[in-house]
């Protein structure tokens, strides 16, 4: 097998200036979850509850994602109050 040196790409200054002038967004430009209408959080669940939840979730017909299952459980609980 022959080993060759990688060909060097020539980049002209105008393309570099064009990329720089496009700019980008800063962290301050990002939309917060509150503005999007969603909140992101970490949830700690005891192992026995998690196991029961997974068993229940997987027994349903079709694919039910964990997040969807938890949202449905929260909505069910809130509707009872």
Features of this protein?
mainly alpha; 81 residues; 4 helices
Give the structure's gist in a few sentences.
With 81 residues, the chain is mainly alpha-helical. It contains 4 helices and no strands.
Topology at a glance:
Elements: H1 13-22, H2 33-36, H3 47-59, H4 66-80
Q: How would you characterize the largest beta sheet?
A: none
Strand content: under 5%
Q: How much helix, percentage-wise, in residues?
A: 40-55%
The value of Rg in angstroms is 25 Å
Structure explained in plain terms:
- It is a single chain.
- The protein has four helices and no strands.
- It is an all-alpha fold and 81 residues long.
- It is elongated.
- The N and C termini lie far apart (73 Å).
